[in-house]
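note to self: dont lose this again. the chain is below, predicted strucutre after it. 195 aa total, dont forget to put it in the shared folder this time
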Amino acid sequence: MKSCFLMASVAAAMLLAGCGKSDAPASDAGGASVADAISSGSAMNAGTTIAANVAASPLHKTLAGALQTAGLAATLSGAGPFTLFAPTDAGFTQVPPVTRDGWMRPAQKAVLAGVLNYHIVPGKLTAADLTAKIAEGGGKAVLTTAGGQELTATKSGNAIVLTSSSGNKAAVTGADLAQSNGVVHVIDAVLVPAM
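---
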C-alpha cells in the first residue's frame, strides 16, 4: 500500500511539474479572482492567526481541512512567526484525486504533514523580502521549509514563482496577507516535496 501511495505521489509530482503557470491572478472554482477576494477584505484578518484565517477563508477549504487532518492547525495557531504559501481550493484540484484523497487518509497523516510543512517557512517573509532574497541570490532564493527541505523562489515578470524540489511550480497570486503570527501568500498550486 505504501509503495502504491509513493508511486501515486511521484506521478502527481511529475504531472504537476508539467503544469504551466501564468502571471494572471488565479480564479477559484466560482470564477472570482484571488485578488478580488483579498481586496474585498473577506479573505484574511490581520488580527487573527494563520490557522484561524485559513479556516475562515472561502478560497482555502481544502487546505483548512488538510491542516486539521495533519495536526498542523495547532502549529499555525502558535506564536510563530510563520510564512505560509497557501494553495487555493483550485490549486488542490490540480492534484490527481487518488493522490489528494490518499493524503487525507489517517494512515497517511505523516505524508500529508510533510506536504503541508513544505508550504510553511519559519519566520515572516513579505513579498519585498522574497524579492530582495531573489535579487541577492542572482535571480533565485532558496528557502528552507518547516519540513527541512529546500524551496526555490524566482521572479517571472512581476510574479513570484515557487519551484518545489520535485519540479512543480506555483505562482503567488495574493501576497502579504498579514496575520497575527506571520504572513500568508496565496498560491495557485500545491507544491510537492521530494518524497
